[in-house]
């Protein structure tokens, strides 16, 4: 009898969770940054999954068929846009057989539509400039102001898809906004003494971050976006770094360390692996912790360099 | 205008527009040859008075000259206008439109070798209407301002499809007595046009320009919003028989196709035909599973249709599963059946099994990957001397060992579709260099022991380069 009761209870429980799962809005995002922001706004009313991992170069994700299944049942697809996912997302959307999440569909959100975009090329652009993004730099989420704008867009979209929860999402947005504003003050204060610090980065992933926190990116390890380092460019860069006394190189976790380390040895600059995405390192487990991690690392390095 | 005509409520308005348009078209024509209608009423009095006829003729000549002058003026004005807009002398590329976009951060000291296309003068704003002298009075020519077509402001351009061209240049040195390719061959310029058609469909065209001519390599409509997890394609497509048959030359890991594809699937072109393909996603918690059914006209590669009902059929089942986040396994099985070139009563059946193992660590995805693949083909071809069961296969491995470098090997073994006593076999070794995502250089050493008893030893090389829209990568 007891055994039957247990089984019945377990059944009822699983049924209840199934019903609750059914009521959840199923969100798929291309990156973990967007997934984290969706979690902030959606809470337990949504289930969210990211296709790319934070330690993966978001330009070079493979269009795996397992992603097709995820998109097939999604209610909402949130993308970074600005052609970041152009090499892998379009065939996935076609194969998903889910027109809701196709561009123009009710469940498609391009997070770049309401944010501040930098590096929009003006004038003639050609591939001689490397893999340029004609619609501007897609690494825009690294400005907390843009994080807030993306969160607002997500709030609007989730409210549209599930109007009865709109107030819930609005309240969660307000809470996130408050926590983000508070954290932003903390981050800016921590970096204030190093305003205008000159740095070199591997890829052009950090213009919005530098813009938000007053850093000055003066060079790149890549000679051109998407083009691997060349000896000639590396030599020029090292000379420039010595001339300007640049002591910091930021590298994304998915790039080879050989060239940055060689530059570091020659110029005495410190090579920092900073993650541009949530999930890039274990500690950066959500959007606010991403900045916490990166800024702690940056500030402690700048502090030790200033001490010398 | 066509849309208006479809709308039944606007038929009258539409008719009015059509009539107006027709009269516009005919007006200049009747003006140019006024002699014909005028001559008819003039005929009767002319019999009475030759003098009057002569006057009539003079008047007509004057009118004609006036019209000719007016048109001449208008032509000159237009030519001048075109020359002014394009910034080049009239006659050179009249279709060219000046770039209105600003120059990239105008350098203080322009380089000595200034690009030819950059106009030194301030860009001419796109003219919305060109001023031309009004037509001569009574000529009934088009009056006033003429519209300028292809103006920069035309926002219809944003609906243009994504266009890309992929060049495939092949070269070969060494000895091959059985199937020698040319020393140099600009083998193909594949032009792709891709766009969303409407909320329900997208279209993809792959046109192949090669020394043999222009061919629709593929061109199909994909219906993306069908219910029940269905996806349908209509058009000319590469048939889903195995894996390599569905790939375009630039997506292959080699400069050539495996011998099994050439011997059993109908050569370099492979199986591609006009037809309909429907595939269904079989959703389950274990793996990605997709079933595809296709029907084709019946003329491709090894198939030949002798009557309208001689269609060919393809069925395919594909399964995929992630083993870890870096490793995955992709397997498929296909069956195809159609009539062949031996006659109306003879068919060919194909069975293909393929397996692909991929390894690509996510964090090192730029620098490392491995792809191991094998495909097995069984062909059963009916011909006058009986049924020929032929088998072919290849097994290959590709390894990326640096950001820009790939090495690969392949071993081929295949009987021939029309005689299973003949078989060709041999290894290939491939080295590929990627200067960027948009170009690659490849060398391949290939040895084939042909059934004829001869052996070929060749060094094949290839340049692949792509311009235009950034296409998605094939998985």
Could you explain how this protein is built, in words?
The complex is a heterodimer of chains A (308) and B (475). Chain A is an alpha/beta fold and 308 residues long. Chain A folds into 2 domains: 16-185, Nitrogenase molybdenum iron protein domain (Rossmann fold), CATH 3.40.50; 188-307, Nitrogenase molybdenum iron protein domain (Rossmann fold, 3-Layer(aba) Sandwich). Chain A is built from 10 helices and 8 strands. The N and C termini of chain A lie far apart (75 Å). With 475 residues, chain B is α+β, with helices and mostly antiparallel strands. Chain B has 2 domains: 33-91 and 123-149, no CATH class; 164-192 and 229-468, Porin. In chain B, 18% of the residues lie in helices and 43% in strands. The longest helix of chain B has 37 residues, at 50-86. At the A-B interface, helix 3 and helix 4 of A face strand 10 of B.
- Under CATH, the homologous superfamily of the largest domain in chain A reads Nitrogenase molybdenum iron protein domain
Overall strand count of chain A: 8
Which two chains form the greatest contact, residue counts included?
A: A-B, 44 and 47 residues
Shape of chain A: globular
**CATH first level of the largest domain in chain B:** Mainly Beta
**Pattern of helices and strands of chain B:** HHHHEEEEEEEHEEEEEEEEEEE
Taken as a percent bin, the fraction of beta residues of chain A is 5-15%
Number of domains of chain B: 2
The total of beta strands of chain B comes to 18
> Given the structure, what is the number of helices of chain A?
10
Mean of residue pLDDT values of chain A: 92
Could you name the key traits of this structure?
heterodimer, A: 308 residues, alpha/beta, Rossmann fold, 2 domains, 4-stranded parallel β-sheet, 10 helices, 8 strands, globular, B: 475 residues, alpha+beta, Porin, 16-stranded antiparallel beta barrel, two-stranded antiparallel sheet, 43% strand, disordered N terminus
């Amino acid at each position: 009898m007891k055994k039957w009761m247990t089984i019945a209870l377990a059944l009822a429980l699983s049924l209840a969770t199934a019903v609750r799962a059914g009521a959840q809005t199923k969100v798929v995002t291309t990156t973990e940054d967007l997934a984290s922001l969706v979690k902030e706004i959606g809470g337990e009313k949504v289930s969210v999954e990211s296709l790319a991992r934070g330690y993966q170069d978001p330009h070079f994700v493979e269009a795996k068929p397992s992603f097709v299944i995820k998109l097939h049942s999604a209610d909402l697809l949130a993308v970074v846009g600005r052609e970041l996912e152009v090499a892998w997302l379009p065939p996935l959307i076609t194969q998903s057989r889910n027109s809701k999440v196709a561009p123009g569909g009710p469940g498609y959100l391009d997070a770049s539509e309401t944010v501040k975009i930098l590096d929009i090329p003006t004038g003639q652009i050609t591939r001689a400039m490397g893999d340029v993004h004609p619609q501007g730099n897609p690494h825009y989420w690294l400005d907390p102001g843009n994080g807030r704008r993306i969160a607002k867009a997500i709030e609007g979209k989730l409210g549209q898809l599930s109007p009865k929860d709109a107030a819930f999402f609005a309240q969660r947005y307000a809470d996130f906004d408050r926590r983000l504003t508070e954290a932003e003050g903390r981050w800016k204060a921590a970096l204030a003494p190093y305003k205008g610090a000159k740095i070199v980065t591997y890829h052009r992933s950090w213009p919005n971050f530098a813009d938000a926190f007053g850093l000055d990116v003066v060079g790149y390890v890549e000679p051109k976006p998407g083009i691997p380092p060349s000896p000639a460019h590396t030599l020029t860069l090292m000379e420039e770094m010595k001339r300007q006394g640049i002591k910091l190189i930021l590298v994304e976790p998915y790039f080879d360390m050989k060239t940055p380390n060689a530059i570091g040895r020659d110029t005495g600059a410190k090579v920092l692996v900073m993650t541009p995405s949530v999930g890039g390192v274990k500690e950066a487990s959500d959007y606010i912790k991403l900045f916490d991690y990166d800024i702690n690392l940056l500030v402690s390095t700048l502090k030790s360099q200033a001490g010398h | 205008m066509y849309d208006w005509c479809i709308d039944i409520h606007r038929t009258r308005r539409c008719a009015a527009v059509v009539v107006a348009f027709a009269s516009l078209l005919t007006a200049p024509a009747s003006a140019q040859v006024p002699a014909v209608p005028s001559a008819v009423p003039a005929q009767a009095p002319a019999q009475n008075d030759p003098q009057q006829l002569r006057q009539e003729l003079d008047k007509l000549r004057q009118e004609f000259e006036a019209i000719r002058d007016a048109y001449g003026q208008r032509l000159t004005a237009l030519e001048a206008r075109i020359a002014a807009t394009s910034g080049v002398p009239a006659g050179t590329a009249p279709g060219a439109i000046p770039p209105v976009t600003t120059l990239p951060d105008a350098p203080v000291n322009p380089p000595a070798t200034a690009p030819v296309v950059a106009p030194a003068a301030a860009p001419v704003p796109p003219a919305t209407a060109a001023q031309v002298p009004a037509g001569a009075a009574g000529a009934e020519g088009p009056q006033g301002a003429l519209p300028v077509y292809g103006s920069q402001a035309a926002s219809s351009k944003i609906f243009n499809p994504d266009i890309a061209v992929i060049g495939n240049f092949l070269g070969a040195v060494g000895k091959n007595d059985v199937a020698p390719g040319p020393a140099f061959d600009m083998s193909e310029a594949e032009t792709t046009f891709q766009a969303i058609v409407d909320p329900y469909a997208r279209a993809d065209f792959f046109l192949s320009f090669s020394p043999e001519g222009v061919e629709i390599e593929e061109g199909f409509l994909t219906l993306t919003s069908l219910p029940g997890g269905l996806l349908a394609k209509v058009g000319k497509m590469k048939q889903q028989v195995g894996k390599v048959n569905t790939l375009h030359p630039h997506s292959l890991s080699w400069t050539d196709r495996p011998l099994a594809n050439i011997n059993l699937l109908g050569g370099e072109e492979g199986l591609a035909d006009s037809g309909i393909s429907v595939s269904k996603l079989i959703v389950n918690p274990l793996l990605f599973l997709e079933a595809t059914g296709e029907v084709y006209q019946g003329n491709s590669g090894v198939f030949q249709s002798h009557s309208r009902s001689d269609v060919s059929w393809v069925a395919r089942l594909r399964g995929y599963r992630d083993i870890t986040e870096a490793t995955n396994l992709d397997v498929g099985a296909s069956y195809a059946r159609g009539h062949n070139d031996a006659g109306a009563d003879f068919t060919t059946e194909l069975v293909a099994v393929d397996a692909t193992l991929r390894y690509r660590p996510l964090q090192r995805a730029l620098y490392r990957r491995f792809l191991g693949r094998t495909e097995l083909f069984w062909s059963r071809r009916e011909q006058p001397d009986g049924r020929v069961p032929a088998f072919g296969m290849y097994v290959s491995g590709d390894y990326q060992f640096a950001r820009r470098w790939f090495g690969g090997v392949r071993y081929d073994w295949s009987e021939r579709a029309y005689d299973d006593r003949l078989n060709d076999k041999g290894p290939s070794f491939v080295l590929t260099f990627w200067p960027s995502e948009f170009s690659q250089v490849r060398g391949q050493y290939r040895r084939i022991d042909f059934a004829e008893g001869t052996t070929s030893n060749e060094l094949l090389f290839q340049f692949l380069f792509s311009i235009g829209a950034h296409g998605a990568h094939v998985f």
